[in-house]
Predict the structure.
Amino acid sequence: MSSSAAALLGDKKAAPRRFDRVAGTYDLLTALNPGYHHHLRLSAERLAVGPGARLLDLCCGTGSSTAALRAAWPDAEIVALDASEGMLARARAKAELRATFVLGDATDPAAAGIEGPFDGILIAYGVRNLPDADRGLANLVGLLRPGGRVCVHEYSVADSAWARAVWNAVCLGVIIPGGLVTAGDASLYTYLRRSVLDFDGVGAFEDRLRRHGLVDVHTEAMTGWQRGIVHSFLGVRPLGSGPVTR
């Protein structure tokens, strides 16, 4: 492993504690992002589950993704997991979300006591922060019922020089300075900039989802400045499928 890859892996392992430190101001910073909540709602709607669905919100943070699921699917049963106690405390304080919040590692939700099957799983801004993304995806797929759907709401800029340029400009001009002003510490946001630049391109991530047994894999775009930068990656666990292995 190269020194840069080792450093990024170390940052991924440290990310939950860094999120703890900025939890109190995180919602202030995301509020500066035009379309942030609307785009989460789009991904939640794109799960296309039925009434009364059982949904898992992985890497729920302060509950913005949970709110998107609740708005899209008002009668759903929602279980939400995050590795940052500070972020979860903020989510739990939002009683209107009507979700069960669990502290745990999204790489292995079962270790936190989460049991499937789920009709749909949303993981927003989370896969690229997992120290072992493939293990996390394998465990995620294993929690879906056959026919269940997954939506990965995530940045991907590797395939587009324009998207990388916009992402760098927004990070250096808004996100990192905003983190410094709101939280007094920009280290998390500096790491998040690098984690996005290091993440799969769209085609590579679609292939990764297929390797983990998902079918009907495709990507849907966002609107506004995040078009071509943030995506809804969608897939379905096949009907009649048994345990999914890597």
Observations:
- The longest strand covers residues 144-155.
- The radius of gyration is 17 Å.
- The mean pLDDT is 93.
